[in-house]
Write a structure and sequence with these properties.
The complex is a heterodimer of chains A (622) and B (194).
Chain A: H1 3-14, E1 20-24, E2 30-33, H2 35-41, H3 49-52, H4 56-68, E3 75-86, E4 93-108, E5 114-123, H5 127-135, E6 139-145, E7 151-156, H6 158-163, H7 184-201, E8 205-214, E9 220-231, E10 237-246, H8 247-284, H9 299-326, H10 332-347, H11 352-376, H12 387-431, E11 440-443, H13 444-454, H14 456-461, E12 464-468, E13 477-480, H15 482-498, E14 507-518, E15 521-532, H16 564-574, E16 578-585, E17 601-610
Parallel strand pairs in A: 12-14
Antiparallel strand pairs in A: 1-2, 1-5, 3-4, 4-5, 6-7, 6-10, 8-9, 9-10, 11-13, 14-15, 15-17, 16-17
Helix pairs in contact in A: 8-12, 9-10, 9-12, 10-11, 11-12, 12-15, 13-15, 15-16
Chain B: E1 6-11, H1 23-29, E2 32-37, H2 40-48, E3 57-60, H3 70-82, H4 89-99, H5 107-111, H6 117-129, E4 134-138, H7 145-151, H8 159-165, E5 166-168, H9 177-193
Parallel strand pairs in B: 1-2, 1-3, 3-4, 4-5
Helix pairs in contact in B: 4-6
Classes of the chains: A alpha+beta (622), B alpha/beta (194).
């Protein structure tokens, strides 16, 4: 091909677009490919045109059209081409399809003898886009008009084949789309409708079109489609592509999510009921040493208290057994008491959770035995057990069972509050697509306060206090959706409470909010800091993945869904902001050492949100 | 009590609050010396080095967290990523203890451990514990039932026996469930062999 004709062609047709240039001989073999074309098609001169075409009929017909058509004007079409990719560690080459916009002109010599074609192509589909479309649970399709003026399927995704109950996308290729309409008239009407749409709007696309079509077996399908199309100079639709969804399935999914939300709401209500029951139980267990002293529930302090009570009970049991032997009293309960004295020694060495459960059980059994011994008094030999001794045993057994029960109740209450928050956030997360995302002026100070109040009880139950660092501004305005922001900050505060360790001088979550400049943009920066469970350095990215839970998140059986940080980051980013996490050893002495997750860490979540541009100036500036 | 009683390792991560109520009947019964391994790492530590002697009975939970051992963490994440099935690290470990290899799903992974310290420890555990009576107590017991029957060699046993050894975890289990399982294992394996 001469330099000047190539230049003319590029000027006339390709303008400033980037792409590859090629030439085919009459046998449709490449006789020339420039560097870009070679890169795109991964073939050399000598390869055949059919070798790079995904759908043969459409691509051959484009060449034939060019040969029959105007010699000065190129024929244009979007073809699905492909190249072969050598995957590492795999013997077989992988076929990678891509959409190419192809411009072709037939070549003739001076005597009018056909010499082949020259053309230009450019990649119009990124591989990522194709993959994403195929992963969507919808039907993606491309139709092209052939030489017989029929719209044929040249590409169908697995979702499209499934929608039309076809065994595979391949089985749909080449089929006339008219088959899928209930009648020819309906199909023609539809095409006319598309033409009118395009003419009136000057845009060849249609969104949310709803229709009833039928699958090859004649079953009716209610579909909704988003589509685009190309027209030629005669306003004829030469190519169409789009996405098709089964309306029933859409409704099904929507209703399912609503059902889940209802179930979650029920769980939430049940948790409130459980909380109420625990409160009622607490009211009966007086005196309650933990009511205003959550620190008393720490493993060491509680363990010591329980050991003390168990020791007293053991002494009283020993006294009762001794009296039985002295007075030669016969009762089944005595053998039981002897067993318990022996067991108590062993029980005091097991883990705290088991001790609590066992002391409740043991206390209840002893109370039952005391009741039985008292009821035997009238028929039993005289003298029977001293009244005061049995009363002492009852008191000691009740004390041990009561304190153990209270400890379990407080632990359960904390867990209920924790799960309740998780359930609510989970429900909010799943149902958010059904709520409109608002763009209001939102005060971050108000959002943070609301999130803190919402978690107040949970924080209290875990012995955690809020500590406001620095002086907070009166208002901190941002543009966004208040509900979503509250949920996102709720996730961060909830994590901070959940992953806090108890410290001797009190446990708190520190929160700071301050104005900053980030790349000349005024922002609000919020820090939320807690002391406790570590996040591994190599987890700093994966921790934001959906459903991912940090390696140390199971520390002390902390429940969670792995959605909080993912959701929080999504929310902040959708507000033009950022969320970062940092976790480092709490003690400065550990900074140089290889830190151990057994040591407390300071974890800081930093949120940046752009300040809202307010008409009439920033109210918090004055 | 230790010395006279059967040593039991309960491999279970939820013994702190949810399942603590199953423990008192066992402790008050006094015939079993119960210890708990809360994750895969703890299980390996207990079974490979228990100063108080070899365990007589093992109770497995099928869905077990990995704990600190990095190889377990990698394995757990890989399986979780596949997404179709829960990671079931406990099932893999049960399979390894009994047969010296993981389930079909995890075989490739276990092979990669062959020359690593963890692989050596697991082989040692397999040699010591492959014949030790084991029961299963998990929310995935029904799901993995046929696999479990083979692993525990219960193919020839009646359904009643299988049901006594393979316990499906659910809310509302009687407080004596764990004790009943231990008593049954003791009677079935130890009385039968005497």
């Amino acid at each position: 091909m001469g330099g000047s004709s190539e230049h003319t062609l590029i000027q006339a047709v390709l303008k400033d677009l980037e792409g590859g240039f090629f030439r085919l001989d009459p046998q449709k073999r490449f006789v020339y490919l420039d560097a870009r074309a070679k890169k795109m098609l991964q073939v050399q001169e000598g390869a055949s045109w059919s070798q790079v075409c995904f759908h043969q009929q459409a691509s051959q017909s484009l060449l034939e059209q060019a040969r029959r058509g105007d010699r000065k004007q190129p024929v244009v079409g979007t073809l699905l081409l492909h190249y072969y990719y050598n995957e590492p560690d795999r013997e077989k080459k992988r076929k990678i399809p891509f959409w190419a916009r192809v411009y072709v002109t037939a070549e003739y010599d001076a005597s009018g003898t056909f010499q082949g074609w020259h053309g230009y192509l450019r990649d119009v589909s990124a591989e990522e886009v194709r993959q994403r479309l195929e992963r969507l649970p919808v039907g993606f399709y491309v139709l092209q008009r052939d030489s017989e003026d029929r719209e044929r399927i040249v590409y169908a995704s697995p979702g499209f084949a499934e929608l039309y109950r076809c065994e595979s996308p391949k089985a749909m290729l080449g089929r006339d789309i008219q088959e899928f309409f209930r009648s020819e008239v309906e199909y023609k009407d539809f095409l006319n409708f598309l033409r009118e749409q395009g003419e009136s709007a000057g845009e060849y696309s249609l969104l949310g079109w709803k229709n009833e079509v039928s699958d090859p077996q004649g079953h009716s399908l209610h579909v909704t489609a988003d589509m685009s199309w190309l027209v030629d100079e005669h306003s004829r639709i030469v190519e169409r592509w789009g996405i098709l969804r089964d309306v029933k399935k859409d409704r099904f999914l929507t209703s399912r999510v609503h059902d889940y939300a209802v179930v979650l709401h029920t769980y939430s209500s049940a948790l409130i009921g459980v909380r109420h029951a625990l409160d009622a139980l607490k009211a009966l267990m007086i005196p309650d040493p933990f009511a205003n002293k959550r620190g008393e529930l720490g493993d060491k302090v509680l363990g010591k208290r329980l050991d003390n009570l168990a020791h007293k009970l053991r002494d009283t049991l020993t006294a009762v057994v001794k009296q039985a032997h002295e007075r030669q009293l016969q009762a089944d309960e005595i053998a039981r008491f002897e067993e318990y004295i022996e067991r108590l020694e062993h029980i005091s060495q097991v883990q705290l959770a088991w001790r609590l459960a066992t002391y409740i059980d043991l206390g209840a059994r002893i109370l039952h035995h005391v009741q039985s011994l008292r009821s035997q008094r009238s028929q039993a030999q005289k003298p029977w057990f001293k009244r005061e001794l049995l009363r002492q045993l009852r008191v000691k057994a009740w004390d041990l069972a009561r304190i153990s029960s209270l400890a379990v109740i407080y632990q359960s209450e904390t867990q209920v509050l924790e799960v309740d928050q998780e359930v609510q956030a989970f429900r909010d997360f799943w149902t958010q697509p059904f709520r409109e995302c608002k763009q209001d002026l939102v005060d971050l100070v108000r959002v943070l306060n609301a999130a803190m109040i919402g978690l107040e009880e949970y924080a209290h139950a875990r012995g955690v206090r809020w500590r406001r660092y620095g002086s907070w501004p009166e208002h901190a305005w941002v543009q966004g959706d208040e509900r979503r922001l509250r949920r996102a900050f709720g996730h961060l505060l909830h994590n901070a409470v959940k992953y806090s360790w108890q410290r001797a001088r009190g446990t708190w979550v520190g929160i700071r909010i301050q104005a900053e400049q980030e790349e000349d943009q005024p922002i609000w920066r919020v820090y939320i800091e807690n002391y406790g469970v570590a996040i591994d350095e190599n987890e700093m990215d994966s921790i934001f993945q959906f459903g991912y839970r940090g390696r140390h998140s199971h520390d002390r059986s902390r429940p969670g869904t792995g959605i909080g940080l993912y959701d929080a980051r999504q929310v902040f980013e959708s507000h033009g902001g950022k969320l970062k996490l940092d976790s480092r050893p709490a003690s400065s002495l550990d900074l140089d050492k290889r830190s151990s997750p057994d040591q407390p860490y300071l974890t800081t979540a930093t949120v940046d949100l752009p300040k809202a541009k307010l008409e009439g100036g920033d109210p918090d500036a004055g | 009590m230790p010395g006279k009683s059967l040593r039991v390792l309960w491999i279970e991560d939820k013994t702190q609050l949810e399942l603590a109520y199953l423990v008192p009947p066992v402790l008050l019964d006094g015939r079993y010396d119960l210890e708990v391994a809360r994750d895969a790492t703890e299980m390996v530590n207990y079974l490979s080095n228990s100063p108080r002697g070899k365990f007589d009975l093992l109770i497995f939970d099928l869905d077990l967290p990995p704990g600190d051992w990095n190889e377990f963490v990698i394995f757990y994440k890989e399986f979780e990523k596949q997404g179709k099935e829960p990671a079931m690290l406990g099932l893999e470990l049960l399979s390894f203890v009994r047969t010296g290899q993981g389930t079909r799903r995890g075989q490739q992974y276990w092979h990669s451990l062959e020359k690593k310290p963890l692989g050596t420890l697991l082989q040692k555990i397999h040699q010591e514990y492959s014949k030790v009576p084991a029961g299963v107590f998990s929310i995935y017991t029904y799901r993995a039932r046929s696999q479990l029957i083979k692993l525990l060699g219960l193919e020839e046993q009646s359904k009643e026996v299988q049901n006594q050894i393979l316990i499906q975890k659910h809310a509302g289990l009687p407080r004596t469930t764990l004790l009943r399982l231990l008593r049954f294992l003791e009677k079935f394996y130890f009385s039968k062999n005497q």
